[in-house]
C-alpha cells in the first residue's frame, strides 16, 4: 500500500466509499473510518499503520496546496 488510491481500495473491501467532494474532507473521513475498522479488529496493525501514514501525508500535501491556492 503506497497511495491514497490503495487506501480507497482497502476501504472499498469493507464497502466503505468516501466522497464528500473536497479532497481534504475525504481524507479526514477516511481516517475516521480506518480507525473504526482497526478498533473493531477488522484490520491488521501493519495495514492500519501504513494506511494512516499515507492519509497523514496526503492530508499534509493537500493542506499545503490549499494554502498556495489561497495566497
Automatic annotation (TrEMBL):
It comes from the Bacteria. InterPro entries: YqgQ-like, YqgQ-like_sf. This is Cytosolic protein. Gene3D superfamilies: YqgQ-like. It comes from Streptococcus pantholopis.
Amino acid at each position: 500500500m503506497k497511495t491514497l488510491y490503495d487506501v480507497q481500495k482497502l476501504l472499498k473491501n469493507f464497502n466503505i466509499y468516501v466522497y464528500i467532494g473536497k479532497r481534504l474532507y475525504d481524507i479526514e473521513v477516511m481516517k475516521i473510518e480506518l480507525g473504526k475498522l482497526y478498533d473493531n479488529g477488522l484490520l491488521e496493525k501493519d495495514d492500519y499503520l501504513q494506511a494512516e501514514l499515507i492519509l497523514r501525508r496526503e492530508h499534509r500535501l493537500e493542506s499545503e496546496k490549499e494554502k498556495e491556492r489561497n495566497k
